[in-house]
Amino acid sequence: MALNNCLKEYRARIGVNQQELGAMVHVSRQTISLIERGDYSPSVTLALKLAKVFDVKVEDIFEYTDTGEEEADE
Amino acid sequence: MSDEKRLEEIRKEDKKKAPLFFIVIAASGVLGGVGGFFLASHDGIWDILFRFFRDNSQIVTSVYCILMLISGISFITFCEVKLASLKKLWKDEADRDDNWDRIEKGLGVVVNALNVGQVFNFMLNGCAFYNIRGNIKSLSSRPEIYSNIYDISFFTALIGFTIFLFLFFNLQRRAVQFEKILNPEKKGSVFDFAFRKKWVKSFDEAELKQIGIASFKAVSIVNYTCISMILVLTCLGMIAEITVVPLICVSIIWIVQLIAFGITSEKEKWKK
Prior knowledge:
The structure holds 2 protein chains of 2 kinds.
Chain A: E1 3-5, H1 7-14, H2 18-24, H3 29-37, H4 44-54, H5 58-61, E2 62-64, H6 69-73
Antiparallel strand pairs in A: 1-2
Chain B: H1 3-41, H2 43-55, H3 57-91, H4 96-129, H5 144-182, H6 195-201, H7 205-239, H8 245-269
């Protein structure tokens, strides 16, 4: 997975659980859990919503690293 | 990249995979031929088997009735027990965050079990009703006790099917209710005829991706299942009196699935 995130840390900073954060950005608790585990990359819209909730930039939460895995698959 | 170069790349990829593809097709054809020869050379056994089921359909339907009761009771008991244990886990607020994923996985198992149980209920009930009054082949001289068995089977199957239908629906309502407690953003009432549409509409992007992948895999598996069933039914039809009805039924299901998937995929592709 090339997209790393520190969503869990930001969530802990504002003291909400996964369900509460999901309600704030209109997604399910499971989706928040998937994002935190790195098993799902959110859409641009969802990433922007999350950044707005924490009052930070998207790049502060998510970091893209080029692992070269996609080129290897090809 | 020019069209010719792209076409060259596509041909290269096809050339790499084509030999194995044709070997598998040829091997399947040989295997099918050997299997067909085996079936045809033992057609006496199939004749005996089908004759037994045809001439004793009313006794066999009693067996289906019993199977329907066993299947219904098993599925409902399993789902009730599982749902109760999940609700117990949920009540434990202290460990709720740790248990949440486990509860959602368990609820998925319950929903799948309910769906499969419903199908078994319909299928076994249909089998239990098959020729229950002896319309297709009446037995001219049958002991009176058989007539009582038929009546008991018929009414048991009818009552059992209705009760199970209600119990399955009630369990599904409770499972949906629990799902909505876990995920408050979910919308839709099971009593609403547009429930499925509203439920899917309340899915978020991750859930939509999941059902997209699941749908595609399901379509692939059903394709393989339908083609296998058609081949088996074709072979059976050559040696036994199974009529063309099963073949047509499987083909209808296959066609409906393909068309529905194709049309829905296109609609979603061009949705604004």
